[in-house]
Amino acid sequence: MFPLKKLGILVALASASSMALAEEGVALGEMVVTGTRSETPLLDLAGNSAKVTEDEIDLINADHIQETLLRIPGMNLQRGNGAEMTVALRSPVLTGPGGGGAFLFLEDGIPLRSSGFGNNNGLSEAHYEMAGGIEVVRGPGSALYGSNAVHGLINVLTRAPSVEQEREIDFTAGSDDLYKMKGTVSDTVDEHAYRVSFSGTSDHGWRDDSGYDQQKITARHDYFSDAGDSYKTVLSAFNLNQNTAGFIKSSDEKAYEDSDLMKENHDDDAYRDWKSLRLSTRWDHELGNGNQLSLTPFIRSNDMEFRQHYLPSKAIEENEHDSIGLQASYYMDIAGGHTVIFGTDFEYTDGGLKETQERASYTFFGKNRQQGVHFDYDVEALTIAPYVHAEWQVAEKWRATTGLRFEHVGYDYENNVADGTGMADGSACFAGPATECLYNRPGDRDDTFNDWSPKLGLVYRVAEMHSMYANLSRGNRAPQTTDLYRLQNQQVVGEMDSEQLDNFELGFRGDVQRVNYEVSAFYMKKKNFFFRDSNGLNVTDGKTKHKGVEAMAMMPLGEQFDIGASWTYAEHEYDFDNVASGVKKGNEVDTAPNNISNIRLGWNFKTASRAELEWSHIGNYYLDPSNDHSYSGHDVVNLRVNTQVTNNLMLHGQIKNLTDEEYADRADYAFGDYRFFPGQERHFEVGASYNF
Fold first, then answer.
1. Most exposed residue of 13, 186, 410, 414, measured as fewest CB within 10 angstroms of its CB?
2. 3-state DSSP percent of the chain in helix, strand and coil, to 5
3. Separation CA 81–CA 68 (nearest Å)
4. How many CB atoms lie within 10 A of CB 229?
């Protein structure tokens, strides 16, 4: 066990030892935008924040966003196949019904998906390959963010236009017929600035009958009017066509060490086709009194079809939703260094889902799964969320943050097939008149959820380059539409509340002679946790608690070398008993490693040239709620090199999994078997980037 009082001691020791190194250093001038949707000095932030910079994104040249975000403390992305993933952010890796809504994925502060229509793989549609940065907040966000910002939020920032003309094209080739191309064009002409970026990937896959083709484009236009108003318009489009390799199932807990077996694909008919489109314009207007009005209307469209290869039915799911929304904020600066933000978020969404089983009806693990349509429904969703966020300079070195958000979420649900647990046409379940099929379809209904999310934070400027912070915050998540309307036969219709998480956090950050650091400790309790247990049953009233320490630092080593590191120790435990699911209070939540770390050694061996050696560690974790099965963890080493050959030409290369580690990117235990998404063996990439 790791009592909370020890967390505070560790944080205090880390801060004291860091500040003892020097009284002076380079001022920590970094600005972040996610907390308030406007630039805020990091030292004045009453909460944690981490960022992957544009330069890091270019160096990593990621095939998957997992490679980019594993350097963030408290972050664990488990890669599935192709573009797929499951996410942990100050949490266990969350899957199934509740996983898609536990995190808020953003592009320039606008959610990639509507709050009731989350998806575990939602980050894939963000254009991280050409981003200007990625900001990550662990735990509940500020009052400006609502549903889904429970365990944290990830904000992918579009790359700003250049001041002078910029044209760049980049090609990469890798092992197993991997080919990537990306490019950007940018310039500023008078009051107008623009950037158009694109990326494309063709991956034939290292596992049998797998691979994907993916295309992304982002166009951004900034306009600065003579009246002082500014407009930022962003258009993003995404397309994915994927042949998916599913889990490798085995009774052997070390099956992932069999490299030949790991290349097999036992779900060669699995696929995912996915496309999305987003358009937004942010208008910032300074009023005569010096205050600022910000309006951001947006639209989005999302369409996805895939085979549920991870479930026994192997059903095909078709889901789509279209949204229109508005973010409205009013920024007030008050004499004395105070700031108040009033705002309201509006969003209307029209969506639907259809799930169809092609294989013949059958019974498995005592559950009757029928051929044909399981679910077919449409949902209209309305979200209205007023909020207030205020920052008060209460003394020379003390700054307080207060916030409150009210969020109303309403669903209007229409079932397009027969209600109940029988067949879609209204006939009895195939197993007999007195039996039920697994899938429970509610009748037409309306559901409403109203949630309050208070925030309270305090920042103390210990010294010019050091600050400490503490915050209390609550995150709420209205149930996803799939939580409410894709039920199982043991569930009661309408018996579901919003998920709620209460968070306490204490942290320190600063600079010591160019050494940048942040250390934070947290304690969180969550109720109404929705998850699917290892027997495939939905559990809607779970309780969990979470505590841990997260640290990150960046330090130069002489003139050419530097070292960066992130480290997490966390405990995630069930806080309730559920005999049917094997859950016992005090058990560790499955797929929740205690230890996660990442260390990078960098060498700037000449101008505009860099090599980086990266070590990533994932500790052991349990695979089921009963804690009967486990995975031993792994260590992966990567080497990256970028070198400037001429003023216009850059060459780059990578060796991934340098030591050829045999490991599982994802492991779990379900339906009586170990299941693994294998990690790829050692592989290579080389490429060139040309500016013209």
1. 13
2. 10, 55, 35
3. 17
4. 13
Cβ pair 350, 316 in contact under 8 A: no
Sheet holding 664-670, edge to edge: 248-250, 673-678, 664-670
Specify which residues 552 forms β-bridges with: 518, 566
Per mean pLDDT, which range of 27-36, 67-76, 95-104 is the poorest? 27-36
Band (56; pLDDT cuts 50, 70, 90): very high
Burial 50-69 (b: 16+ CB within 10 A, else e): bbbebebbbbbbbbbbbbbb
Burial class of residue 209 (count of CB atoms within 10 Å of its CB; 0-12, 13-18, 19+) = middle
User: Token digits for 312?
Assistant: 């026994």
Contact between 526 and 499 (Cβ < 8 Å): yes
pLDDT by residue (tens digit) across 134-184?
Answer: 999 999 988 999 888 899 999 999 999 999 999 999 999 999 999 999 999
Helices within 425-567 (DSSP H only): 481-485
Domain ranges, residue 139:
4-691
Q: What is the DSSP string of 643-655?
A: EE-SSSEEEEEEE
User: Which residue, 623, 680, 681, is CA-closest to 79?
Assistant: 680
Pairing of β 75-79 and β 50-53: unpaired
| CB of 331 closer than 8 Å to CB of 38 | yes
CB 223 within 8 A of CB 214: no
Per the listing, tokens 């435990």 go with 573
For the chain, what is the domain count?
1
Planar angle of CA 97, 101, 102, nearest 5 degrees: 105
| Structure tokens that stand for 481 in this block | 């539409």
Among candidate residues 620, 625, 650, the one with its CA nearest the CA of residue 635:
620
What's the pLDDT band for 339 if we cut at 50, 70, 90?
Answer: very high
CATH number of the domain to which 144 belongs: 2.40.170.20
In a 13 Å sphere around the CA of 338, the CA atoms on its Cβ side amount to 11
**N- to C-terminal Cα distance for the chain?**
58
- Is residue 7 pLDDT above 50, yes or no? no
Give the per-residue pLDDT at 119: 92
Rounded mean pLDDT, 226-255? 96
Please give the pLDDT value at position 449: 97
Per-residue DSSP letters for 112-135?
SS-TTS--TTGGGGS-GGGEEEEE
Among the listed residues 612, 599, 589, the one whose alpha carbon sits nearest the alpha carbon of residue 568: 599
Torsion of Cα atoms, 484 then 485 then 489 then 494, to 10°: 40
Dist CA 427 CA 439 (whole Å): 14
Which residue type, as a one-letter code, is found at position 422? G
User: Tokens 């290579």 appear where?
Assistant: 684
Phi, psi dihedrals of residue 126, rounded to the nearest 5°: -70, 145
What is the tens place of the pLDDT at every residue in 517-559? 999 999 999 999 888 776 667 788 899 999 999 999 999 999 9
Q: Which residues of 119-132 are buried (b: 16+ CB within 10 A; e: fewer)?
A: bbbbbbbbbbbbbb
**What is the C-alpha separation between 626 and 587, in angstroms, rounded?**
7
From the list 123, 348, 131, the residue with the least C-alpha distance to 234 is 131
Q: Cα(27)–Cα(23) distance, rounded to whole angstroms?
A: 11
The pair of three-digit structure tokens given for residue 359, joined into one six-digit string:
């294989």
Q: What are phi and psi of 490, to 5 degrees?
A: -90, -5
Whether the CB-CB separation of 28 and 45 falls below 8 Å is answered with no
Question: Measured between alpha carbons, how far is 74 from 499 in angstroms, rounded to an integer?
Answer: 21
